[in-house]
Amino acid sequence: MRVIDIHIHIQPLHMFKPHALELIKRGRRDYAAIEKYSQEPAAFLKFLDDCGIERAGLINYVSPDVIGFTPEVNDWVARYSSAAPERLIAFGSVHPRYATDAGAEVDRLARIGIRGLKLHPSHQLFSPNAYRDGLGPLAVIYERAQANGLPVMIHTGTSIFPGARNAHAQPILADDVGVDYPDLVVILAHGGRPLWMNEAFFLVRRHPNMYMDISGIPPHKLLEYFPRMEEIAEKVLFGTDWPGPGVPDVRGNIDKFLALQLSDAAKSKILYDNAARLFPPRR
Ligand SMILES: [Zn+2]
Asked: Residue 40 and residue 196: Cα distance in Å, rounded?
């Protein structure tokens, strides 16, 4: 089966705050390889080949407070992905509190080859519906993303990075986004795991353009977390969150996913078709 991993963290490691980088390094025997991949697209593409992955979403976001990433991550990931735009799907971000002109920055990201925006509420320290409480630039970001046809991935579920504020990470806070921006494609990363799966399931069924990815969920837990996965197979994207904390390897995740009690049709939608539809290949 063809595979798109929509959620991989190939990041500029030199921009991490020391505490955050510690968490990535902890207990990883493959850290040297991760360093190499973050510097050399060719080495990473070879890794994808070895894992049987056709295309990958490279998730990056501006988080000066918690992770250390400045808007430079956008230019970094755009440059990195330009090595193979037909296989690498660049995700960038605009921070509504730090951008001087949030709308112009979204337009700029679309121009430099960013294919999707990432919002990380618990690392960026605002809720996805904070535009209803006065965070005006956030509304502008959603509007311009919608106008540029950029899907927005919103992190949902807990994070253990030092300084992360998990009150912002509840999926239900994205319900307003579905109401106010019905044409915007929203992907709820991690399906609210491990605390709020019911909320994510509800939202994905409620809003026609709301999806979720299953990254960061150990595959053997997937049907325990989402017993009705088959019903939402049109709206679910495969991802690993590798090399995030608690995600040992990529190929193992694919094999364990393939072994689940799901129809082959559902597996192929989740592993490939849905992401291919949302992110048509570019050359
Ligand atoms: Zn992630």
From this structure: 37
Residue 279: CB atoms within 10 Å? 18
258 Cα–ligand 1 center, Å: 21
pLDDT at 130 over 80: yes
Instruction: In whole angstroms, give the CA distance from residue 224 to residue 212.
Output: 16
Q: Is 90 helix (H, G, I), strand (E, B) or coil?
A: strand
Distance 61 CA to ligand 1 centre (A): 10
How much distance in Å is there from the Cα of 83 to the middle of ligand 1?
22
- Ligand 1 center to 244 CA (angstroms): 7
pTM of model > 0.85: yes
Distance, in Å, from the CA atom of 221 to the CA atom of 273, rounded to the nearest integer, reads: 22
The letter for the amino acid at 104 is A
CA 117/CA 109 separation, integer angstroms:
9
Find residue 160's DSSP bridge partners.
none
Separation of 249 CA from ligand 1 center, angstroms? 14
DSSP state of 272: I
Q: How far is the CA of 42 from the centre of ligand 1 (A)?
A: 22
Query: For the segment 69-98, what is each residue's pLDDT rounded down to a tens digit?
Result: 999 999 999 999 999 999 999 999 999 999
At CB < 8 A and 24+ separation, what contacts does 195-202 make? Answer: 195/157, 195/158, 196/156, 196/157, 196/169, 196/170, 196/171, 196/172, 197/225, 197/226, 199/156, 199/170, 199/171, 199/172, 200/156, 200/171, 201/226, 201/228, 201/232, 202/172
Contact 53, 4 (CB under 8 A): yes
CB 156 within 8 A of CB 190: yes
